Structures are given as C-alpha cells and as structure tokens.
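Here is one chain, start to finish.
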Amino acid sequence: MELCGRRVVVTGASSGIGAACARAFAHERTSLVLVARRRDRLETLAREVEAMGSPEVLVFGLDVRDRAAVEAWAAALPEPWRAPDVLVNNAGLARGIAPLHEGDPDDWEQMIDTNVKGLLRVSRALLPGMVARGSGHVITIGSIAGHEVYPGGNVYCGTKHFVAALNRAMGIDLLGTGVRVSSVDPGMVETEFSLVRFHGDADRAGKVYEGFEPLHPEDVAEAVLFCATRPPHVNVREMILMPSAQASAVHVHREG
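Its structure:
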C-alpha cells in the first residue's frame, strides 16, 4: 500500500525503535506526529525527518502515563490528525529484574502505567476517528515477553502479555470497521531498553548484548513498515522478530 502523503503517529519516538520508525516512515514521505517525554530529542529528530522528505512533522512532549495530558494532547491535535492513517504504539519500558517478592512497587507502577495504561489511553484517543473514517492501522510494539516469561521478568512480561491480548481483542472489536490491528514482537534489540531497566547502570546494560548481534532498531522499523504497506485485504496480526542468535526469551548463543 502506498504511504506517501499519509499521516503517521509514533509514540516513544525520541530514541530507539520509535525514532527508527519515524525515519522509516519519513523515507516513504509520510507526515508525522512524534510523541515522547523528551521534546528536545523530538525536535532534533523532526529536523532530520523533514530533511528526509516528510512534508509535515509535529512534535509533542507527552508522558502517556498522564491520562489528563493524553486527553488534552488528543484534543489539541489539528483536525486531520485526530484520525491518523497509522498509529505506532511504541512507548514502553522495563524496570528492574528482581523476583516478585523482592520487586520495587515503583518500578511496577511505571511499567503498568506506560505499557498498559499508556497504550490504552493513546489508542482510545485516536481510534474513534479511524473508525468514523472507515480506515486506519494500529501497530503496537510488543515483545517476545508477551509470548514467554523469564526469571525476573514477572511484571514486565505480564504487561507484554496484556499487549498481546489487547492486540487480539482490538482485532475482534474493530472487525468490519476498516481499521487493521497488528503487533511486532521483537526479541533482544539494542536500544536504551536495558539501560532503563537497570536504572542507568551502563556496564550491566552493555553486558546484555555481549557476544552476539542483537536486533537493531532499524530491523524492527522495517517490520513495522512491512505491516503498514500490506494491501488493504491483508493484515499481519502478529510478527515475532528475533536475532538469529536468540531462540527464546532465555536461550541466546554467545560467541567466546
């Protein structure tokens, strides 16, 4: 499906997979709304994607955990943007890797508020316009953690299982509306993910990706673009994307 001139919203766009998605869609000459907490990074990215060919780029500093802020953002969007052609629900994070009985409830709150409630809020804000128009596509970045669990992944895996379930449920809710629903569920991707999970411990985060080549953000963005460019009668419901060196959430072949 031709994307040139279409409108795409990307959440969590300030780095990693979200920024890579913005660049991938810019190559297709789409207009973009870029959303994240770090507006300064978004403004830098906006200049980059404009130079790549995006005809219109709007940036919004927004924390999807804040219900009132999401509602105000949606209300402030220019009218055409209230029903984008594609919504990429990318905002998400992991915090901590302790067993449940030793976990930090503050970490739990951040994951649930971002990965679950943030996803719901943004989708709820933009889906009505898509349904009213009779077309649109919601593409959510899930995780292998939405299909498997692993030691210390308790709450994070729970939030990503929610994402997988919601993706399937939205597909049923939106059946016959012309709105498609997809998820791209990657394994290990080298982004700021582990740095956030380990509360800024760069040494510990770096060790996660040692000895093998993980996915890169651009790999995931290409998968998102593949979903978005299928003809209208085709929908990629779920795509699991793994590094060649990773066979499951916990099985990774490392050299040396």
